[in-house]
Amino acid sequence: MYRLLAAAALALMLGPATIAAQGTKEEFESRLSYKTGTVPLSGGMATLTLPESFRYLDAADSRKLLVAWGNPPESGQGVLGMLVPSDVSPLDDDGWAIIITYDEDGYVSDEDAKALDYDKMLTEMQEATTDNNEAREKEGFEPITLVGWAEPPHYDVAAHKLYWAKELKFGASKDHTLNYAIRILGRRGVLQLNAVSSIDQLAAVKERTPDVLAAVEFNEGHRYADFLPGTDKAAAYGIGGLILGTAAAKAGFFKVIWLALLASKKLILAGLVAAGAAIKKLLGGGKDTAAQT
Fold first, then answer.
1. Residue 219 DSSP class
2. What is the pLDDT along the chain (293 residues), one digit of tens a residue?
3. C-alpha–C-alpha distance, residues 81 and 135, integer Å
4. 3 state DSSP class of 274
5. H or E element, residue 60
6. SS3 track for 239-263
7. How is 120-161 classified by DSSP, letter by letter?
8. What three-state secondary structure class fits 92?
9. Which residue from 50, 72, 83, 105 has the fewest beta carbons nearer than 10 Å?
10. Domain locations in the chain?
11. Distance separating alpha carbons of residues 73 and 269, to the nearest angstrom
12. Could you give the count of Cα atoms lying within 13 Å of 155 in the half-sphere of its Cβ?
């Protein structure tokens, strides 16, 4: 659920108009209740210990921000909260944020982590993306190119935390987009943190990644080490499946969230790269126009 294997894009034309309808940028942001310090997450499952570099928005305020970015109201479904850098407004051109969701798909074994060949994995994903573009174009959608790793996968076996980043290109657009993913493994599932930014902000996101990794911890009883073999549910995939997006294929396309890319004025739909027909159905028709910025 909510795996970010790839993305489909369209022009984000509603953002400025939506914000204007709710007042000035300052007025809108004044209605957001930012939290700092120690923040409980999702009914005591996990805790955020926020560094000074981040603020937190709860689920309700996250939905407000997603809509202000030009996303449909249902974009907030499944979103637990958002991490927003303290030194920039999420409504500025250089604003970005990290959206938090949770996938209770079971305990993800990390036994495959040491054996993974990330170069081979990238090649397989690039080939699959290319193969699926024919179906996308038949549905009237622009092709997607997986340019490469913006940040190769890194797995901390002691902390059970994983992160990676993909660089994507939509159609003939010269502007590339960033798909930055952080995963925190727990007893019954995975906390998923997805950075919403442009490829130009890779350095900023990468610089803050250690802060984010250190800030998020499952609470006692929900930790990776608390897993009870034979009693607790185990996921049908490992670390490789998290990166490849295996679970998204099994869970179904419509269990997705919308992510806005502010700087490029694009909207990313988390899910499967081959889901052109499903996207068209979800949007009620229409074509990708992500390159038209």
1. P
2. 333 323 223 323 334 444 444 567 888 888 999 999 999 998 889 999 999 999 999 999 999 988 888 777 777 888 999 999 999 888 887 888 999 999 999 999 999 999 999 999 999 889 888 888 888 788 777 888 899 999 999 999 999 999 999 998 888 888 888 889 999 999 999 999 998 777 888 999 999 999 999 999 999 999 999 999 999 999 999 999 999 875 444 433 323 333 333 333 233 333 322 233 232 223 333 333 332 22
3. 34
4. coil
5. helix 59-68
6. HHHHHHCHHHHHHCCCCCCEEEECC
7. HHHHHHHHHHHHHHHHHHHTT---EEEEEEEEEEEEETTTTE
8. coil
9. 72
10. 6-283
11. 14
12. 19
Rounded Cα gap, residues 17 and 88, in angstroms = 21
- For β-strands 234-238 and 107-109, DSSP reports them as parallel
In the numeric block, the tokens 């910025």 are attached to 293
Task: Give kind and range of the element (H or E) at residue 213.
Answer: helix 202-215
Residue 159 CB burial class (10 angstroms; 0-12, 13-18, ≥19): middle
Please report where in the chains the tokens 């959608």 appear, as a residue.
141
CA nearest neighbour of 238 among 74, 138, 105, 120: 105
E strand residue ranges, the chain = 6-11, 38-41, 46-49, 54-58, 81-85, 97-103, 107-109, 144-156, 161-170, 177-185, 190-198, 216-218, 234-238, 258-261, 266-271
Please give the structure tokens belonging to residue 13: 């034309």
Beta pairing partners, 177: 168, 198
Cα dihedral 172, 96, 163, 83 in deg (nearest 10): -150
The span from the CA of 30 to the CA of 206, in Å, is 28
pTM score: 0.78
Return contacts of 89-95, CB within 8 angstroms, 24+ apart: 89/25, 89/29, 90/29, 90/65, 90/262, 91/19, 91/25, 91/28, 91/29, 91/262, 92/262, 93/262, 93/263, 94/201, 94/262, 94/263, 95/262
CA distance linking residue 219 with residue 40, whole number of Å: 9
Strand partners, 146: 168
| Residue pair 52/86 in contact by the 8 Å Cβ criterion | yes
